Amino acid sequence: MLLSLALILMIGFSLSGILNRFKIPGLLGIIFTGILLGPYVLNLISPEILAISTDLREIALIVILLRAGLSLDIKDLKKVGRPALLMSFVPATFEIIAVTLLAPMLLGITTLEAAIMGTVLGAVSPAVVVPRMLHLMESGYGKKKKIPQLIMAGASVDDIYVIVLFTAFLKMYGGEVFKASSILSVPVSVVSGLLLGAVSGIIIVWIFKKVHMRDTVKVLVIMSTAFLFMSVEDLLSKVVPISGLLAVIALGAVILKRYEPLAKRLVGKFSKIWVGFEILLFVLVGAAVDIRALSGAGFKLVLLILLALVFRVAGVYVSLFKSNLNKKEKLFTSIAYLPKATVQAAIGSIPLAYGVEAGNSILTIAVLAIIITAPLGAMGIDFTHPKLLSKD
Known about the structure:
By secondary structure, the protein is mainly α. It is 78% helix and 0% strand. The chain is globular.
């Protein structure tokens, strides 16, 4: 295990640094490190690490979402309003509909299999998007119109919506009847997650003000609470749907609201923790990519991904209709909504394991989506934000 961790960190940092020097997002080098070291190429990542890969990726995601919450002013979210709500489901819906209509024609699969494929493709990656939006917030880009906050808020709910649909379609394939309550669980999980995070944040701030402890200990308390949120989500999933990730963001936002000096100190600590966890997260995402699935990948799969992205961009423009964003800002928001990685790596292989006939095609397109859109979206955000967003 120690050798695996050493290789992950050394090669990941090296490739990331090399690509950054050529003005290419280091993220691409980190994902490639995972593919290279993963079980489908050199197989140098120990089975012990791969066995807990899902948990490690979840911890890394919690770290960046806590940092996001501690930087997310509730007043800014109120200003964003309607567009943030629409961004949480409209672009994904457009993309899912596109794949459901086009995949049967291009790939010869059934409509239900195409719908499952659409939900695998439909989620944006908070792990790619959120760190970049935080950087824009710190740099002052899009600050006046709260564009980074708009994108972060929408991307956080987008995943919940897509995963709920994915689960519903997969159950339909297994013969279960589709229930409208499945869709209703999305707003319920959002509200319950926000309430859980907000109440916990109020209690934690009260404790921090009453009991003196070092900031390092406070970081551990906050992270432990965030881990509990994810456990509560799993425990109560059959009773009350709760979004643990939204609870994490709400926790950070409430700490900022009620104890701003502490929140600003903790942001720095979480930024340092993220340096290591970013490498770990994307290396493990890369390790989950089964490049063997690409052996039979053809032009039609790539075409389907690109056409689906066109529909996704159309969904972004519909969500921003009559908003105060200008043409350049709408274009940037569309680019920021392209990257896919974490969700696709997590659920791409499930249909194949579930016995879906088109499971291999779904896995292949999930792998292709990560390889195409993660670097495309990351480079798009990094290269275009100085030209498309105003800086305050």
